[in-house]
Amino acid sequence: MSGFRTLLYKEVLRFWKVSFQTVAAPVLSALLFLLVFSHALSGRLEPFPGVGYAQFLVPGLAMMAMLQNAFANTSSSLIQSKITGNIVFILLPPLGPGEIFAAYLLAALVRAVAVGAGVFAASVWLIPVPVAQPLWIAAFALVGCGICAVLGILAGIWAEKFDQLAAFQNFLVTPLTFLAGVFYSVHSLPPFWQAASHLNPFFYAIDGFRFGFFGQSDVAPGSSLAIATGAFAALSFLTLQLLRSGYKLRN
Amino acid sequence: MDAAAGPAVEIRGVEKRYGAVQALAGVNLEVRRGEFFALLGPNGAGKTTLISALGGLAIPDAGSLAILGHDVRSAYREARRNVGIVPQELVFDPFFTVRETLEIQSGYFGLRDNGPWIAELLDKLALASKANANMRSLSGGMKRRVMVAQALVHRPPVIVLDEPTAGVDVELRQTLWAFVRELNAAGHTIVLTTHYLEEAQELCSRIAMMRDGRIVALDTTANLLAEFSERVLRVKLGCELPATLAATARADAAGWWRIPIENTAHVEDALAKLRAAGATVEALEVAEPELEEVFLRIMRREALVA
Fold first, then answer.
1. A10 and chain B in contact, CB less than 8 A
2. A-B interface: how many C-beta pairs under 8 angstroms?
3. Which residues pair with B14 in a beta bridge?
4. Confidence of residue B1 (pLDDT cuts 50, 70, 90)
5. Residue from the list B81, B93, B95 with its beta carbon closest to the beta carbon of A94
6. Which of A88, A94, A246 sits opposite B77 (nearest CB)?
7. Which ranges of chain B does DSSP label H, i.e. alpha helix?
8. b/e for B4-40, b at 16 or more Cβ within 10 A?
9. What is the ipTM score, two decimals?
10. Which residues 6+ apart lie within 8 Å of B107 measured at CB?
């Protein structure tokens, strides 16, 4: 088994062994959001023509849960390994920076997809949602979660304490994912906030993901995918550079 | 450089600074193939930093390190395949069992089907009964043994043990040293750091001593003992030390007198002087040269130089 495959296997096994916490709990949280918001806002205008608010909410909540869990997987694994010291068992073997990066990234995508599938499977029992373009769904799920997974690696490398990581999550990742159009269409926002939303890469990921279900979106899906992929590529490049330099890991 | 003929470990001009602290101040060192080598020094001497640099856990500011001719930075994959490092700090991954831990560690080195060697490691390190236990449930000594096994899963030709017996009971120490001796006899190079100097004296053929990030002594164990220690007659007296022995004898921490002797004739001389002075000898023993004495003398000398 190659080093990369083993690290991927280990990272998947790590979250799977506590799947009640890492998969089932976020699915339940998303369902609670869905039940409360769909009930409270059921009289709201249709965000897209022919798409009810509860339907609109399902892909957004699924994507938000996926994004947050992709971040949680990489960041928590790295910070735990750093703080407990067992990161040495990854740093001592002949694993290259690219292998470490790819293994953490893919494991996070596996968890994100498991959570997303769980949210979707549980939601469609309550609120039927069409699947118009499955390839767009897959593409945006992977790129969006990829951005979060890489952000998690960056945060895990940078943070030296759990509270630093919590700050990264609470003051950056959670606001960006919450304000990315999960609960509303950005067209319903005032012009300033519409413009601000367009600076948020997660907006494109969620908007494009939703396009895959309804065939409608605020931004053309091709443009959204290009922007989200650009953000993913830029963050990946930065993270790989840090891994190559050994920043905060090999010191 | 010919990787097949060079030293097991080659360290050239290695420097490492952490803020205001110069952890390594130009270390040069070679460990020969097949040696059982000790790296000794007080806390903060730089031993662990040097080992970290060897394993790629710390990147030096200057200098180079190579394992079997493979530079630890430019040829890190080959270098890391050839070395197994047991870190000093007791660390483990709480998500896995002992067997999973060793299988995963094997996989990092690209090893499939490493089961027979893992079984042998578990057996040699008395861990077989705990193979399926979660790492969290193990005692400190058992966790230490798993760390040793993790460092050996890829059968590295060079094995570095950073204080492997710290806080470990006598039985485990003996089990561990028996196994490490076996590995050394089979051709593995062993580099050991320890605060138990009697272990280093018993096991290691060559010793380097570090202080303040520098190598301050490097020689065979026998030469260091011959130069800095001596065979002494230790006596416990029920009276004052006779004046005839005052020039050579000195008191040790236990309140015994240490009288240097070169051979058995000197023992007779010393006892004769004690008898002649009417001294009451309550207990006596001939003490062999001790590495601890060598260590203390060298560290005191370096403290004076500093």
1. yes
2. 81
3. B27
4. very low
5. B81
6. A94
7. 47-54, 76-81, 98-108, 115-124, 140-152, 170-185, 197-203, 221-228, 264-276, 291-305
8. eebbbbbbeebbbeeeeebbbeebebbbebbbbbbbb
9. 0.90
10. A1, A2, A3, A5, A6, A7, A9, A10
Nearest CA-CA distance, residue B168 and chain A, Å: 20
For residue A241, the tally of other CB atoms under 10 A from its CB is 11
Indicate the residue of A2, A3, A250 with minimum beta-carbon distance to B59.
Answer: A250
Predicted confidence at residue B4, as pLDDT, reads: 59
pTM of the full structure: 0.89
C-alpha B236/C-alpha B258 separation (Å) is 9
CATH 3.40.50.300 domain span(s) along chain B: 9-226
Whole-angstrom distance, CA of residue B147 vs CA of residue B89: 10
pLDDT, mean of residues B15-31: 96
Average pLDDT over residues B156-160: 98
CATH architecture label of B9-226: 3-Layer(aba) Sandwich (3.40)
Query: How are beta strands B21-31 and B189-193 bridged, if at all?
Result: unpaired
Largest CA distance in chain A: 58
Please give the mean pLDDT across all residues of chain B.
Answer: 91
In the sheet where B62-67 sits, what is the strand order?
B21-31, B9-18, B62-67, B70-71
